[in-house]
Design a protein that fits this description.
Length: about 90
């Protein structure tokens, strides 16, 4: 489900970046006016997960995607991470 926001889109982007950067081992690799892509590395094996956000300012939505680059299962790591980012983003509003 996309993230919803009611404030100014630039403020929502800023809040999202703050929420994302609270996670460990995050590197923002691409940032545009309506798009944000970050890589997050696992602690032990250094696997890379891609986290992407696409902003729809007219709809006041942020579409998101988080996926492991390697393997078939991450034991729910990506889902838990997105849930933490989602909660922090909503609480910072």
């Amino acid at each position: 489900e996309p993230l919803k926001f009611s404030d100014d889109p630039s403020m929502a982007i800023s809040r999202l970046k703050q929420s994302l950067l609270k996670e460990k081992r995050v590197t923002i690799v691409d940032e545009q006016a309506d798009y944000l892509h970050a890589e997050i590395r696992s602690l032990i094996f250094r696997f890379v997960d891609d986290v992407e956000f696409r902003f729809s300012p007219e709809q006041k939505l942020i579409h998101l995607r988080s996926a492991s680059r390697v393997g078939y299962s991450d034991f729910g790591v990506n889902r838990r991470r997105i849930n933490r980012i989602r909660e922090d983003f909503q609480q910072s509003n």
